């Protein structure tokens, strides 16, 4: 018992550990999924900066001022560096990305100065300088985008590993749950078996005296019922002449014949040896008598045996104790036995 208690405790601790691990893994998966969404937006806006800056240069070279677009790009570059609720951008936790972004920001300032210089002095030299800086800036932007994409791929790889870990933990929890369920079922079956052994008569399958003493007060409370005391006739004679195995078979046949006459809600108790009690809820004495006489006929037809009985009808307001009711039904059974003494004086097995 102590060993089982320790085993159950260890299993419980293991399940708690794995459930905790699963919760942590799921939380990490949630945050990583959220981060992937954020990284995707960073990659998207870093690409916008790369493309928009080139379009702005082309327009400036065409003598079209694009100050609004330059301001827009300033805002995006700032948002990429520090995060932004306006653009729904996160700050990537990547040193290489932040370093490259700082380089991109410096080059952007240099490129803007070249734009303003070209506006004032649109010479071929300034145009060439602007084109050179534009190409350099494009390469830096391209590198920034690549670093962000690699960062996102790293998260995706980590998320895939996390999914595998979650699958393993879930699988282990399922196995542990199945094992725990199996143990619960086994314990439940053992409990039913112990309960059956404790309250059922092993020979006939009816309830035993212990069950009667413990549960009859509850069963009979607040209802009208007939209580029948039954004594199987000539059991001692059968045991002496044919052996106890034949006697047991005789008891089983008699009880089966009696059981067939009653409802499934009626309860038969073996009080010991050849004595039985039947509880007939909401059944009047006249009906109980008819059923028992039918049972006696069936017993006689199948076994050439018989039984005696005494019936007491109990009203729900009856103040007598169970012991008094049992005593009265027992007395009536003996009175019945005297009257029918000649019936069932001996028992022969069916077919002999």
UniProtKB/TrEMBL annotation:
<feature type="transmembrane region" description="Helical">
    <location>
        <begin position="12"/>
        <end position="31"/>
    </location>
</feature>
<dbReference type="InterPro" id="IPR043128">
    <property type="entry name" value="Rev_trsase/Diguanyl_cyclase"/>
</dbReference>
<keyword id="KW-0472">Membrane</keyword>
<keyword id="KW-1133">Transmembrane helix</keyword>
<protein>
    <recommendedName>
        <fullName>GGDEF domain-containing protein</fullName>
    </recommendedName>
</protein>
<dbReference type="GO" id="GO:0005886">
    <property type="term" value="C:plasma membrane"/>
</dbReference>
<dbReference type="InterPro" id="IPR000160">
    <property type="entry name" value="GGDEF_dom"/>
</dbReference>
<dbReference type="GO" id="GO:1902201">
    <property type="term" value="P:negative regulation of bacterial-type flagellum-dependent cell motility"/>
</dbReference>
<dbReference type="Pfam" id="PF00990">
    <property type="entry name" value="GGDEF"/>
</dbReference>
<dbReference type="GO" id="GO:0052621">
    <property type="term" value="F:diguanylate cyclase activity"/>
</dbReference>
<dbReference type="InterPro" id="IPR029787">
    <property type="entry name" value="Nucleotide_cyclase"/>
</dbReference>
<dbReference type="GO" id="GO:0043709">
    <property type="term" value="P:cell adhesion involved in single-species biofilm formation"/>
</dbReference>
<dbReference type="InterPro" id="IPR050469">
    <property type="entry name" value="Diguanylate_Cyclase"/>
</dbReference>
<feature type="domain" description="GGDEF">
    <location>
        <begin position="223"/>
        <end position="349"/>
    </location>
</feature>
<keyword id="KW-0812">Transmembrane</keyword>
